[in-house]
Amino acid sequence: MSVKILSITLLLISMCVCCHSEDTRDRGPGSTPPCCVDVTQDNVSADVVGETYREQAARHHCVKAIIFNTKNGKQLCADPDAQWVKDLTANMRKV
Ligand SMILES: *[C@@H]1O[C@H](CO)[C@@H](O)[C@H](O)[C@H]1NC(C)=O
Q1: Pocket of ligand 1 contains residue 57 by CB under 6 Å
Q2: Domain check: are 65 and 92 in the same one?
Q3: 1 lines ligand 1 (CB under 6 A)
Q4: What distance in Å separates the CA atoms of residue 23 and residue 42, rounded to the nearest whole number?
Q5: How would residue 15 be classed by pLDDT, with cut points 50, 70 and 90?
Q6: 83 CB within 6 A, ligand 1
Q7: Residues 50 and 81 placed together within one structural domain of the fold
């Protein structure tokens, strides 16, 4: 019984690790430019800096996304259909 639960738990953990390592390979430093494989729908406009944004088309495992720059120097993948994203990009310049 408990062995069964343990093996299921281990299976779930290994699935998580698998997904995460795939994530870092896509976004990590390397020859390929970073690409959004996921977008946020949350309104994080308070963290967005700069007056430019980038648009990413869906390609392979990359999803359609708006890429903003954030305060901590990172890039943020946002849902192009989210209202806060539309509000922000209306006042920004696409690069
Ligand atoms: C998102 O958050 C900003 C700043 O907190 C706010 O000004 C804006 O109205 C919000 N937009 C939406 C669609 O909730």
Answers
A1: no
A2: yes
A3: no
A4: 20
A5: low
A6: yes
A7: yes
Same-domain status, 26 and 50: no
57, two tokens: 């088309």
Domain count, the chain: 2
Residue 23: what are its φ and ψ, rounded to 5°?
-60, -50
Please report the atom of ligand 1 found closest to the CA of residue 83: 13
Mutation pick for ligand 1 pocket among 48, 49, 85, 87 (CB with most ligand atoms within 8 Å): 87
42-82 pLDDT, tens digit per residue, is: 999 999 999 999 999 999 889 999 999 999 999 999 999 99
- What pLDDT score was predicted for residue 28? 47
Determine if the pTM surpasses 0.70. Answer: no
Structural domain of residue 66, as residue ranges? 34-95
- Burial tier of 21 (Cβ tally within 10 Å: 0-12, 13-18, 19+): exposed
- 23-32: burial string, b at 16+ Cβ within 10 Å, e else: eeebbeeeee
